[in-house]
Structure formats: structure tokens, C-alpha cells
Write a structure and sequence with these properties.
By secondary structure, the protein is an all-alpha fold. It has 30 helices and 2 strands. A two-stranded antiparallel ribbon has the order 1-2. β1 and β2 form a beta hairpin. The relative contact order is 0.03.
Length: about 450
Amino acid sequence: MNWSQLLRNLKSDDVTERYRAANLLEGAPKTLEVLEGLAHALADDGFYETPGDYDAPPFHYAVARAATDALKCPEAAQVRELVTEIAARSDTAAFYAPEVLAFCGELAALEPALTDPRKDVREQAVRALKPMAGRAGAPAVLRALLVALTDDPVTWVAVNELQYFLPQHPELHPEAPDLVPRLVERLHREPGACTFFRAAAFLYGPEVHRAWVELALKGSHCAAEQLLSRTLAPDEQARLAAEAPLTNKEVLLLLGALGVPEAVPRLLPLLDDPKLREFALGAILRTPGGPRQVRDRLVTFFLELADRRAGIVQKHPDPAALAAEVLPTIRPRLPGDRDRRRDAWQMLRALGPLAASEAPAVLPYVRLGHEYADRFLALDTLLALGPELPESQDALVKLLDDFELAHYALQKVIELGPRAAALRPYLEVLALESKRHGDLIAEALRSVGPGVV
């Protein structure tokens, strides 16, 4: 390979030649001449274009990107000052330079980019920190990422980087008391910016906790969201139950998690608010004594609020009475159009064994001739009503015998385990005759156990 010619091609008027040269120089010996030529190519604004497939738009390959990839090597330290100088006068070079400087091994190499006035340059610098842990040391990288949390425009990048960095270094414990006041001040300044709250969570402590409680008491949905995973003192719980503005779902979810009975009278009027009633009901159901205060409305809510049905059945003072009231409304929907039918099945799944009497009406939809989705949902519904029901066993056999859907049925058998022991003889025959799903059939046999003796 003629490396000298490729270096000359980096200065060609033809962008295709420049891109190919930068791309090929990745394999060149990293002499000072090659490194300097690639460093100057970081400022190249050109794009090599190739046609897209069929009617897709064309593909663009940046010359500067190819030069960056070629410079990702320890030898890049020899042109560190040159790269920094070029980045100072070229936006394109400034964008790519942090990736190169990260290979210089010292965080000092990235400091100019981390404090650059251009937001996108700082973002790139933050992204370049994580790979430096092996050379610069994980504690130093952690500190730099924590500092980046306080930089408003790039906080979201630092949050994302820390979410991946910390699990890779469980020995590290974020501590930066000097940064906490800046983070807390920003929470009060921007109570609706949830990224800032997630940033503060990395340095969680008494000061951050107090700020979250204060802001939740003012209705901050971001603060309420963070407090869901924290332990609150009894006095804090009482204050939130009595004072927090009930204006968003996060505050209502928090009140439900706290389960303070004194909050229920404040929640009851929200049951008539179409936007918040679902979340208000969820909070009431999770609060001791709450379900009894809304018992007379639970049938209506069961029929109307799909996401609350399981909770209503679980928390109802008399689930059997609830089933007796709603089943006459559900039955006419079973043979209806697809949407009504599937909604009715969802109600049956929420009721579980309390609705076992409806299994014969569901079984026909497992058979051939119905949409795959209907057959899956019908099986799921029957298993929710009771896997031991004859209709459930029949449904499993029908799908196990289906060339296309046996995979799904086998997964259900594995989930059921010994509760599907009656199917073992069928599975044994299937293991001998089927040419597909051998591993799944073997796992299903192990799962169900020895069968019925």
C-alpha cells in the first residue's frame, strides 16, 4: 500500500478520494506524518455519498469520521496539541476531537472539550469519558461524569453515561458533596425538568431528599417520581397526604405507594376527573380502608378502566360478589365484534377462577379459522380461568397440535409446570412424532414432572 500517495489524497479536491484515503490510513503505520495528516482531516466537512437501496435515501460517510477512527490509537498522543489546536478553529474537528483525545490516556487531554462553549462538543467529550476508565482510572472518570451532571445542556448525556458506567464498576460509590448544592439549586429552579432530578439521584443524600420532598409538596411530578423508590419518614408521609397538590399522576402514584388513609378523602373527588380518576382509584385501592369507601362504584370502574381491573378484583371487599355483578354484563360481549370480545376476555382474565363458568364460551376461539391473536388470547384467558379446567387442557392440546402455534403452547406448558402434568402422555407422543421444537418439548416434559400416577 502506498501510504504517501494516500496522504496526498487526503488533500484531493475529490471527496471520494479523501474519504477512501482516510479510511485506508487506519491500517497505516502510525508515523508522525500519518498522524498529522489524519489530524488535519478531522476538519474536513466532506461526505462520501453512495446510493441507497431501492427507494431509500443515499448513505453519507464523513471524511472526518474516517479520520477519527484511524486516529483511535495510543500513538494519537503525539498529535494531541495539534488536534486541540485544529478543534479550536473547526466545528467539525471539535465534534470528533474528543474521541481522539480519549486515546491520549489522560483526562487533561479532554478538559478543553469538556469546557468548550459549543454544546455538541461538550456532549461528545462526555461520551468519550467512559472508554478512558482503563487508562485514566475509573475514579477519575466518575468524578468527571459527576461534574458533567451540573452542566445543564449536557446533563442528559452524563446521566445516560453514568447509568452504564456505574454497573461496570460496582466498587465505586458516587460522592461529590461539593456538587450537591448546585444540583439542589437547579431542582428548585427547574422543578419540571426530570433529567435534573435523575442527575441528583446519583448523589442522593439528606439534602437531595429534602429538596425532593419540598418540591413534591409543591406538585413537582419529577420529585414525586423519584420519591417512589425512597423511604419517607412518617411526618413526610403525613404532609404529602395532606398537602401535596393532586394535579398529576406521579403524585397520585406516590400517595398510593405511601398508603396513608388520611389521603383518601382528598382523592375521592378525583374519581370524577376523566384524566386522573384511574390514578386516583389506584391510590385508593392501595390504601388501607380505601376500597370499602368506593365499593359502590367498583363495578362501574371494573367495566370502564381496563388497567385497574386486576387491582379492583384483588382489593374488592367481596370479589365473588363483584364477579356475580359483572358477569351478566360480560357474557353478551363474548360473541361480539373483535374489540368487544377481546375486552370481555380481558375482564375474564382479571376475574380469574371467579369466572370459570365462562370457559365453554371462550374455547371455540382457540380452534382453527380464527385469527392467531384471538387464538393466543383465548388460550391465555382459559388458563387464567383455571389451567386444570377441561377447556384449558383441550385448548393446550389443540395448539400443541398446530404446526404454527405449538411453540407458544409449549411455552405455556413450561410456565404451568406440574399444573399441566395431565398433558405428559400427549407430550411424550409429541416428542416421538414431532420434527420441530425438540428442545422445548424436552423442557416441557421436565417442567410438568412425572405426570399423574
